[in-house]
Amino acid sequence: MLVGAVFFPLLGACLAGLFGRWLGDRLSQWVSVGCMVLAAICGLSAFVDVALHHAPRTVVLTDWIAVGDLTVQWALRYDTLSAVMVGMVTFISTLIHLYSVGYMSHDETPPRFFAYLSLFTFMMLMLVTADNLVQLFFGWEGVGLASYLLIGYWYDRESANRAAMKAFIVNRVGDVFFMLGMALTFWTFGALSFDSIFASVETVRDRTFAGLPVLEVISVLLFLGACGKSAQLGLHTWLPDAMEGPTPVSALIHAATMVTAGVFLMARMSPVTEYAPVALTLVTIVGASTAFFAATVGCVQNDIKRVIAYSTCSQLGYMFFAIGVGAYQAAIFHLFTHAFFKALLFLSAGSVIHAMSDEQDMRRMGGIWTKIPVTYAVMWIGSLALAGIPFFAGYYSKDMILESAFAAHTGAGMFAFVLGLIAAFLTAFYSWRLLILTFHGRPRADHHVMDHVHESPAVMLIPLLVLALGALFTGAAFEDLFVGHHEAEFWNGAIHTAAHNHTLHAAHETAAWVGLLPTLMGVGGIALAYVMYMFVPSLPGRVAGAFPAVYRFLLNKWYFDELYDRIFVRPARRLAQVLWRTGDARIIDGMPNGLAAVTADAARGAVRLQTGRVANYAFTMIIGLVIFVSVIMLGLAR
């Protein structure tokens, strides 16, 4: 059961990828789906056994590395944190696989797609069940590789290739910090297994590195690594471009796999970060800034998938500032509920795109809610959960994060609380902007497109309906276990809360108005969206015209891409051109090519001497003999 949850997706990837030509397109798809169903059954069983029945264990598969003092086993660590992630990842991924059967039905190479999708799932499962940092890094790099393959799946599109490269390169920046943090962890603890690290935290608390507390440095390095995978401010630029991949890929990346890896890493390392207050302050500030930044950008985007992508970036900011204020349980709770409603939103967007003949621009939609009523209804449910409206899933987890930030009673916590409230208002606004522009108003698409608008097939609608149930009920169903009165018993030591950390308990005792504010902000955002896009549809244009600089600033995503292009991309290209022209063309190629040219010239000169006339050869020999004798005579005369 524990092994099957992780390795059934790998089996599906191998069968579809290696034998897809013999299995055929349809059978390859259903084999992958079947393997994921088995993985989900095992994953949910593991969740019940490990998390609900409090039976954590570690399954050792084999010895992996033994070099000097470094010994690493290949093992599956199943505690409550891992069990939650495994259950969620396998369940969500199974639904996305099933949805993909319908969505990719007209694709030319479905076995390749399903092989990549299953491989992506396997790598994420390896990451969350890792028993040491090396194994976690294997999964970490694996999801990076799989995301590159899936984002660039349509490799005949230049935009997809660029997006895949961008995701891969930006994540490598974060991975450098992860590797440095891993190296410093080994230098500090003499081990990379989690049990050894966590058992020795108390003994190294006073140790320093380069004059700084070593636990602070390790925590900052690991957080910077997490910023790459989880698209935090500064290393977020790859996330919206990842929309170039097929919609199921977007759903899997944003809901259950890659972007949640950084949040998981910080929660896993809670025994270390609990004693790194400066690092946690940095996490809080960056997370809150990311939540605010992404929410502002999402308000003006016109691509339906990009709006949802920026909402992911914003919600990840919530998770990180929850970690920063010490509410690790609230962060994982929001990660868990967010997986359901974010997968629902992306797959619903895919259903809209499918119905609109691959149109993604919301300005060319409108007036379609009666033609795709199921998609419309479930997208409402997902938006209500995202906006934190009572009593949908996001209401419980997002409110707990904001209450925890307020209860932290720190400057960083209040900073996060204020920006989190603003982001909640903006989140509700852009969610209903999306709903109104997509489904309401007069049809703005070409009449040929409108004539073919149709509801998705059952194979796509069934996953949407199941996810809608998750977006409705997972918050209420799991609140008490994740962050309520039974949280300590539920987590069973998988998340460490130090004696000085009372944030989560204090959050339950905050004033009623603190819990009411996020709901009021959400309702206010919805009301503003109705005013601007339903009742006075000319108002957005007038606002953009009145504040053109602000509108361009947001539309261009705070100019991060342009800034990075100026600071990093252009200088790198210029340097590459100099190295190519001087180092490659003149030196590396020039030296052997120059010698070859000299040899060729000498050969051409020698060819001219070969006239074919015996008299010329005899004359040459006589001249040579005269010169030879003359040299000898001069030598003897001396």
Q: Kindly report how far apart the N and C termini lie.
A: 99 Å
- The number of E-state strands comes to 4
| Rg | 30 Å
Provide the structure class: mainly alpha
Low-confidence stretches: none
Summarize the structure.
With 638 residues, this protein is mainly alpha-helical. The protein has helices at residues 2-23, 25-52, 80-103, 110-128, 133-151, 158-189, 194-199, 201-204, 214-229, 238-241, 247-255, 261-268, 270-273, 277-298, 304-324, 328-355, 373-386, 393-407, 411-439, 447-451, 458-482, 487-491, 503-507, 512-535, 539-546, 548-555, 560-588, 590-609, 614-637; strands at 57-67, 70-78, 208-209, 212-213.
Structure description:
- The chain has helices spanning about 1-25, 25-50, 80-105, 110-130, 135-150, 160-190, 195-200, 200-205, 215-230, 240, 245-255, 260-270, 270-275, 275-300, 305-325, 330-355, 375-385, 395-405, 410-440, 445-450, 460-480, 485-490, 505, 510-535, 540-545, 550-555, 560-590, 590-610, 615-635, and strands spanning about 55-65, 70-80, 210, 210-215.
- By secondary structure, the protein is mainly alpha-helical.
- The strands form 2 sheets. It has a two-stranded antiparallel sheet. The protein has a two-stranded antiparallel ribbon with strand order 3-4.
- Strand 3 and strand 4 form a beta hairpin.
- The N and C termini lie far apart (about 100 Å).
